[in-house]
Protein 1
Amino acid sequence: MQITLASQPAAKVETEALVSYVFESENEKGTPVEGVIADLDQAAGGALARLAASGELTGKALEMTLVHFVPGLAAQRLLLAGAGKREKFGTAELRRLAAAALRHLRARSVKRMAFLARESDRGAAAAEAVTEGLLLGNFEGDTYKTDKKNGPLEAATLVGFDSAAAQSGLDRGRIIAEAQNFTRALGNEPSNLLTPRLLAERAEAMAREAGLAVEILDEKRLAELKMGALLGVASGSAEPPRMIVLTYTPPNPKPGAPVLALVGKAVTFDTGGISIKPSADMEKMKFDMAGGAAILGVMRVLAQLKPAIKVIAVIPSVENMPGGRAQKPGDVQIAMSGKSVEVINTDAEGRLILADALHYAKQLGATHMVDAATLTGAIVVALGGVNTGVFGTDDAFTARVLASAKSAGEKMWHMPLDDEYRELIKSTIADIQNVGGRWGGAISAAWFLREFTGDTPWVHLDIAGTAWLDDAKPWMGKGGTGVAVRTLVELAMNFDGAPSGK
Ligand code: BES
Ligand code: MN
Ligand code: ZN
C-alpha cells in the first residue's frame, strides 16, 4: 500500500473514503466538536453536528460511522471512527484506530482512503502510529486462497501531516510495520512449507537483502558443537535442525561496547513428540516458531534503522516429532553447556532448544540477552491473550524491556522468578529436568532457561498467548500477530539512552 502525506484542506481531498475520529467527550451535551472536525462540519453545512445530536455518533472507542456523499466534501465517503476518551488516547490507541478504520473500509471494497489526523496528533510519533496501523490492518493471512474477495487497500493519504518530522515518522512506521507483517506471514506458514531448512533459507534471503551477516549451522555443525539438548528434540524428525545466526554491526563499533543477543524459539511444528499432544487444535502448533520469526522481523528493521549497538540473532529451529529415533521420556541429554537434562516430557521442547541457543549466544559475546518464545500453555492460563509474560534476572535490564514494551504499545506483564521456584526442576538422575509439574508452569520453564544464562543479564518473553489471534479483532486479522517485534526494536534503538516512555 502506498502511503503519502498531503496538506490540502480535508474537505477538498478527493478519495473513496476520508477517515477521521471523534472523542467521547465531544458528544457530551453542549460540547462542540473542535478543530478539523468543526471545519468538516462547516463544509458540510452542519451535517456532522446534526449527526452527533441524533445520538448515533458517540465517539466510543472503535465505533464506526460511515456516511456517504456528505455535501461539501470531495471524498465519496466520510468514516468517523470513535476514539474513546480523550484522556486515554495515545499513540497505541491511534495505531489501533487507524487499523480498525482501514479494515472497516477494506470489508467494503474501498481501495483508496485518506486519514485526517486531529490537531493534537500531528508529530512524528503520530505519523508513525497511523502508518503502522494502516499497514498492520491491511495484512490478511490468506496467502493460499486462490479467490481473495476483499483485496487490500492500495493507497492512503495522511492529511494534516506536512512536516519533515511527519515524513520520517511515516518512513519509520513503514519499516517497522512491514517487518511485523513479515513476522506474521512466517507465523501463518504451514509446517510443510516452512521446515527448519526452509526457515533458514528465508532468513538467509532476508539477511542478504537487508545487508546483515548470516550464518546457518546445519546438523553436522550442531553435533560438532555438542548441542545435545537441541539435537535430542530434532532426532524424532526426518527434517534436520538448523541454527540461524544473524549479526547486525553498527557503523562505528566500539570495543567493549554491549552486545545484545536476541534468541527466538523456532519449532516449525510441535506435535509434542512421544509425549504427543491431543489432536484438537494441534494445527495451531505451526506457529511455534513465532519467537524466531519475531527476531527475524526485528533484525530486518535494525538493518534499516541502524541502532548504535551490535545485535546478534540466534534462532534454533527444529520440528518436534514422534518417530523411531525420537527421544523418549526419561532420556538424558547433555546440553552444550555440559549440564545434563532429564527429559521428563518431550513436549517441553522449546526450553531444550533455547538452552543451547542461549549458551551459544553467550559464547558469541552477548552481554545482554532477550529471548522470545511460545513456551508454555501455563502463561496463557495466567495472562490470557492480552499480556506477554516477562521474566528476568537483572532488574534494571528487565525494567528497560518493560519500558520499551510500553512505548511500543505492546502489553507485557512482569512475572516472578524467585529462587524458591528453582526446586521445581530438580532431577533425581541428572542436573535438572525439563518440566516442573502442574503449578507455576511458566515460571519453572523460565527457571529452566535461566540455568543456561549464567551471569549475563537476560529477559525471557513468553509469547504463547500473544503471538496468535484465534479470532480477528477489529484492528487485526486472524493468525500471527508479530508480537515483540516493536518492543525489541524499541529496546535496540534506545539501548544506550533511557527508553522514551511515549
Ligand atoms: N509450544 C508449546 C506451548 C504452547 C501452548 C504455545 C499453547 C502456544 C499455545 C510448548 O512446547 C509446550 O508444549 N509446552 C508444554 C509444557 C509442558 C509439557 C510442561 C505446555 O505448556 O503444555
Ligand atoms: Mn511442546
Ligand atoms: Zn513448543
Protein 2
Amino acid sequence: MLFEYTHPTFPLPTEAQPFMDSEDKNGRLALRGDLLDFTSMPGWDEVESAAVRYRPDHWLLIEDGCIVGCQHGAQAPDASWRREEHRGKLLLPGFIDSHVHSPQLDVIASHGSTLLDWLETYTFPAEMRFADWEEAEAGAERFLEALLAHGTTSACVYPTVHKISADRLFASAASRGMRLITGKVLMDRHAPQALRDDVPGAERDCIDLIERWHQRGRLAYAVTVRFAPSSTPAQLEMAGRLCSTVPGVYMQTHLAETQDEVALARSLFPQSRSYLDVYARAGLVYPRSILAHGIWLDAEDRALLRDAGAQIAHSPSSNLFLGSGLFDWRAALDAGVAVSLASDVGGGTSLSMIRTMADGYRVQAMAGRSLTAWKALHAATLGSAEALGLQAEIGSFAEGSTADVCVWDWAVGAVAERRLSVARSLHERVFAWMMMADERNLSVAYVAGVARYRR
Ligand code: GUN
Ligand code: ZN
C-alpha cells in the first residue's frame, strides 16, 4: 500500500452490475445502426477525412461489456447474441466531458456576471451545500444521471472542497460502471471560510480518497487545484508532491480563462513568467494534466504544454456565456497541444456535448475560422481519450474498447428532418446534426454494454 490507510468513513458502493443486461445471452449484445467513430485525428480543414470511419447499417458486437467486432446489417448475428435494432439511427462512442463541475447544476444559467464575480455570487454559495453527506450523495446521483441523459459516459469532474463530495461521486460512478476522473477540490485562500481547506488536512483527504478509489475499476483520482488564485504556494507544492508520487494520478485545474483572472494570478505570483508557469513550477504540468480554458496564453506557454504532453479542455459554451474570450484552437493545434472539449457546466449552459460542439464552431467562426464537424466530434471522443491516455478503453469502436455507446436520432422535428434529407455529403449531414441536435436526440446510452439511460 502506497500510504498509511486512515478512516474509511463512508460505505463503499455495491459494485456495478455485471457487464450485461439481465436478459443478455452469454453476455453477448449486438447493436444495429449507423456506426461513426475515428481511427486517428482529422486535419483542420478536411471535410473528407481518412480519419473518419463510417459504417452505415452495421452490427456492433459486444461481449462482456467490450467491443469485439462489427458486421454488415444484412448479416445478422446468430441466436447466441441479443439483438437490438437501432436501424436508421446514429451510433457514436459515448461522449467524454473533460471538464465539468458536479455541484454547479444548481447555478447553471445564472444571470449577469463575469468569472470572478460569478464565482462569488453564485458558485461558492452553491458549493457550500455539499459539506453535507446527504446533499453530496443526492447531488452526485443527480449529476451522473444527467450526464448519461446527455450522452456523456466519461468525465473529468470537479466536486467541491469537501472530501465527502468526491467520495460520493466516486461511489455513484462505480455503481454505474462509468469512467470517471475526479478528486476533492483544493482551495485554501481567496474563498469563503466554509470552502477553505488547509494543507495538512487537504493532503490527508487526498491520500484517503486515493487509497479508496484511485484505479479501482474505471475510476481515477485527479489532484484538483481549483485555480492558482485560490491555492497558497504551499498548497500547490503539496499538490505537485502528490502528482509526482502517486502513479497514474491526473491533475486538473483552470488556466488563463479571463483577463481579470490572469491579472489576479500575476499579482499573486509575481515571480512566475506566466500563469501557466505557476503550475509548471509546482510540478503540475505533465502528460495527465487537464488545463481548462487556456485562452490567454502565449507561444511560450503553448510550447510548454506541448513539451509536457498536457491538454487544454476547451469549454466554448462557458467562454461565450461568461464573456471570457475566444480560444485560438488553430494556434494550439499548430503548436502541437492536445485539445479536448468540455461543457464546464455551470459556466457552460448545457451538459450536452453536441451543444458544446456547436458552440465550438461559433467561437472559431467569430475568429474567422471554420471548425469541421470532424474536429469537433473527434475532440469529444477519441481525441479526448488520447489526451487522457485512455484510448484503449474509451472514445472509439475499436475492438477491445469498453462498450460505451450512444444511440442518437439523426433528426428530431420537421426542420431537422428536411435539412438532413437534402444533405449531399456525410460531412454536411453530420455538421447539420451537430448544429441542430441536442440531448433530445438521445435514444439510449450504454455504459460497458449496459443500457443506463433509455428515452
Ligand atoms: N475558475 C475557478 N473556478 C472556476 C469555476 O468553477 N468555473 C469556471 N468556469 N472557472 C473557474
Ligand atoms: Zn470550470
